[in-house]
Design brief:
Chain lengths: ~575, ~300
């Protein structure tokens, strides 16, 4: 038997040739003629919309496809020189680690130490080396304090780290991660990405990372591979990827790249530092008014909580999850409830919906409340949409979410976004008077695993709900999503409200809970690419000067001279006279 | 909130015992419940399991299982009383019912239903004590020689209950969040959804197990270490006790069958045998519930 754990360094970490794969009973292939080669030590981001084949590609690289899932496969997959189609995932475990999207399905043991040690035990490592490896990987991931904890007492972020530790403990050559930050707050998400970069640089681990929130990881990547409909649509460096996405699929643009696109600036930035460097002397002017001001009169209170305390058992010990929360939401308001994992966001929503009893204080939703919890599929128990929502009340709810056309469909045949809308309709049904919504509509982490196109649809739906008079309260980790829909942000920290104000103030004033555009421009009330573009357009002259200096400084190729830097028509009008003088 | 059936590590003989020893012990009492119809014997097996569960510290699991089991037993009694019209002692004549026809509620049908319900409750308590006291990690490792090529089988055996318990809590919450205009969830659709969802998630967990190398040939050297010390394949000094008690219970049950300890007839009139064999077997069963007992001050 070959030595699986020590293949030669020169061998590619992953080599896929002409891979076509179809899941059992699927009408069409999930992967079509995919060829990909990853060199040892690369950090590659796998981009693409939902259901484009990213997860299937990762599963093929770790042997789950076809060995676990079955189906028809054609082509070649080699991991560190080992034929993955001839070898099962167990044998490949020596050279490849895999971290899936849902951390709850990635733990098979009851304690953290047992979970991390399992792969080593399975391959027969002696006890002394197992103990050392567990200790070292726990230190590397900053989780030694968790080793004796039961896995069912861990938060989502902690579970994700444990899953990563179990994937890394065998010191694999290749680590595959499928949207590992989708359940993490911005702080934990950023920490995870930079942790991967450190492992990549210090341990030489090759990393293939599928991710929707590209603004988080592009700056750390060596290369980006974009997929579309089972094909590889782009393969190149991050800056070229952004240029490609500008034309091919704007849903894959990062906010900073979108900002530059709107201003007609090039080259597109791959991260905050890159963008700030380009705009260092631009001195943009912020808009004068907060976005929410003057939008609509707010009158009716749809949620009120005063001195709300909630205690939950964490393992054997009860702890205060919410501490003296005072909060009001008015009709028509769109409120983002943000904070770190475990800050109390979901508990606040669950308490308001009556699922949890407070130990002190009160919370009321006078006009009624509909809550959509984190997993919409939990609401779907029947095989026909019409059976879930019978009668006029059901049809009214379906109309509100734009799903009346699907009354005869099987919920399992609906897309992820449609299932979410259907679940919301189930929560709304009977709580409306005619077509009038309940006072408060609350959504708990509705964007898990969503691509930007689906998020845009959800932003539109939230806008429609608010326009119809409902207060909308959304617990989310997704800063960019919050910037897109919210007029107000409530930031929780360890069960306490630590900030409450207009979205374009809260999301512009911090580091972690700030949008990428806010971090690039660092201006009050500028959080979206559109606001950023407006601010930049207000001072285009200084901007052009800054860009020219920067381009000279970076020494771009002669084909990209400073004078070629593109500006949008609106900016050109302001720039041309002075720009000509400057050239002269 | 944790499920009452979730495994909780404790310092007790039943937790320290190997999964095989625990299965032999608890399985022998469950086997008696399947094999016997005498309510005296069934009650004794149930009492033994409650004692065993409480001695092992699984109070919440026993309480939850009793609650669920007795609710189920009442349901079975009601259905049996309406569906079965046999028996001499008619308690109520309810006339003609659609689908059921003529409905006479008899004491014998109620007694027969109670025996079936009691049997179900005893098995549920046995399963609850197993789930709360036997470490799934050790079950997973114990199964490796038999299910090494099928992580899915191993996952279904060792993880389905914890996964289903977590899913059930979520589904219950979602059911409470449904608007009053949505169709009521109902138990059958919820049970179907729970089973399908739990199986789906168990498949995902099985995939993870494959990736951890579970299907590799089990190495001889894999003994001890962190897992070995905490939850691994070690044996316990209590194993012999549980094997012995399980064997005695099974042997006594077989002998009891031969000696007429299962003397019970539902129809045409209820007859419950309380002969010496029945009483002796019942006493033995109750005593077997003391197997997880540990003198104070001694560590498992």
């Amino acid at each position: 038997m070959p030595d699986l754990a020590t293949p030669a360094r020169a061998v590619p970490a992953l080599a896929i040739e002409a891979l076509t794969y179809t899941y059992p009973n699927a009408p069409q292939p999930a992967l079509r003629d995919v060829s990909l080669r990853l060199s040892p030590g690369e950090l590659v981001v796998l981009a693409g919309r939902s259901a484009c084949g990213k997860s299937t590609l990762l599963r093929a690289a770790c042997g789950l496809v076809p060995h676990f899932h079955g189906g028809e496969i054609d082509g070649r997959v080699e991991v560190a020189g080992i034929d993955a189609l001839a070898t099962g995932p167990g044998e490949l475990a020596a050279v490849v680690g895999y971290v899936a999207q849902d951390p709850e399905t990635q733990v098979v043991s009851t304690t953290v130490a047992a979970e991390i040690e399992l792969p080593l035990e399975m391959r027969g490592d002696p006890p002394s080396s197992r103990a050392r490896a567990v200790e070292e990987v726990a230190l590397a991931l900053a989780i030694p304090h968790l080793l004796d904890r039961a896995v069912d007492t861990l938060s989502g972020g902690e579970l994700q780290r444990v899953a990563l530790a179990a994937a890394l403990v065998t010191r694999p050559r290749l680590v595959l991660l499928d949207e590992p930050t989708s359940q993490l707050d911005p702080v934990a998400g950023d920490e995870l990405i930079w942790l991967l970069r450190r492992l990549n640089e210090e341990w030489g681990v090759t990393i293939l990372l599928a991710e929707h929130r590209l603004e988080r990881c592009l700056a750390a990547a060596d290369r980006v591979v974009a997929m579309s409909s089972g094909l590889i649509a782009f393969d190149g460096d991050p800056r070229d990827f952004l240029t490609w996405a500008q034309d091919a699929d704007t849903a894959l643009e990062t906010p900073a790249a979108r900002l530059f696109s709107l201003c007609g600036l090039e080259p597109l930035p791959v991260g905050v530092r890159d963008a700030r460097r380009t705009l260092a002397s631009a001195n943009p002017v912020p808009p004068e008014q907060s976005r929410e001001e003057g939008v609509r009169p707010l009158s009716i209170t749809t949620l009120t909580s005063s001195d709300l305390w909630v205690e939950l058992a964490s393992g054997e010990i009860p702890r205060d999850v919410l501490k003296s929360i005072d909060l009001e939401v008015k009709s028509g308001e769109r409120v983002a409830l943000m904070g770190r994992n475990g800050a109390g966001k979901s508990t606040l929503l669950r308490t308001a919906a009556g699922l949890v009893d407070p130990v002190r204080g009160r919370v009321e939703a006078p006009g009624g409340m509909a809550l959509l919890s984190q997993n919409p599929s939990d609401y779907l128990v029947r095989e026909r949409v019409g059976d879930e929502l019978p009668g006029d009340a059901g049809m009214s709810a379906l109309r509100v979410v734009g799903m009346e056309h699907a009354v005869d469909a099987d919920p399992r045949d609906l897309s992820g976004g449609e299932r979410q809308r259907l679940a919301l309709a189930i929560a709304l049904a009977g709580r409306m008077e005619g077509e009038e919504l309940p006072g408060l509509v609350a959504l708990d982490e509705p964007t898990r695993g969503m691509d930007r196109a689906r998020k845009d649809d959800l932003v539109q739906l939230i806008g429609e709900l608010a326009d119809r008079g409902a207060g909308v309260l959304v617990a989310t980790h997704d800063v960019e999503f919050a910037a897109a829909f919210a007029g107000r942000v409530v930031l929780l920290g360890d069960g306490v409200v630590i900030a409450d104000g207009p979205a374009d103030e809260i999301l512009a004033g911090g580091w972690y809970f700030a949008t990428e555009v806010a971090r690039v421009l660092d201006l009050p009330r500028v959080i979206t690419p559109e606001q950023g573009a407006a601010a930049l357009t207000n001072n285009a002259v200084a901007l052009l000067s800054a860009i020219r200096q920067e381009v000279r400084h970076q020494g771009l190729p002669s084909s990209k001279q400073p004078d070629d830097v593109a500006l949008p028509p609106a900016m050109r009008k302001q720039v041309r006279p002075q720009g000509a003088g400057e050239e002269g | 909130m944790r499920s009452p059936f979730a495994y909780t590590p404790r310092q007790g003989p039943l937790q320290a015992a190997s999964p095989a020893a625990a299965v032999v012990y608890l399985g022998s009492l469950a086997a008696v419940a399947f094999a016997y119809s005498s309510p005296v014997v069934l009650l004794a097996a149930g009492v033994a399991l409650v004692i065993a569960g409480r001695l092992a510290g699984a109070h919440a699991a026993v309480r939850a299982a009793l609650w669920m089991g007795l609710t189920l037993a009442l349901l079975i009694v009601a259905v049996n009383a309406l569906v079965v019209g046999r028996g001499e002692t008619v308690l109520a004549r309810l006339g003609e019912w659609p689908l059921f026809g003529r409905v006479d509620v008899t004491a014998e049908a109620i007694a027969a239903g109670a025996v079936i319900g009691l049997r179900a409750a005893v098995v549920m308590v046995a399963f609850a004590v197993y789930s709360a006291c036997v470490d799934p990690d050790r079950v997973l490792r114990a199964l490796r020689p038999f299910a090494g090529r099928s992580a899915l089988t191993a996952t279904l055996v060792s993880r389905l209950v914890p996964v289903a318990a977590a899913d059930a809590a979520r589904l219950r919450d979602a059911a409470r969040l449904r608007g009053p205009g949505a169709a009521p969830v109902g138990r059958p659709p919820l049970a179907r959804r729970l089973l399908a969802g739990s199986l789906d998630r168990a498949v995902d967990v099985a995939a993870t197990l494959e990736l951890r190398g579970y299907s590799l040939a089990a190495p001889d050297t894999a003994r001890g270490g962190v897992i070995g010390r905490r939850a691994g394949v070690r044996r316990s000094r209590y194993d012999r006790r549980f094997y012995a008690v399980g064997a005695i219970v099974l042997a006594a049950a077989i002998a009891g069958k031969a000696l007429g300890a299962d003397a019970f007839a539902e129809y045409p009139a209820v007859e419950v045998g309380v002969g010496q064999a029945t009483l002796t077997l019942s006493a033995l069963l109750v005593l077997s519930g003391l197997a997880p007992w540990r003198p104070k001050g001694r560590r498992a």
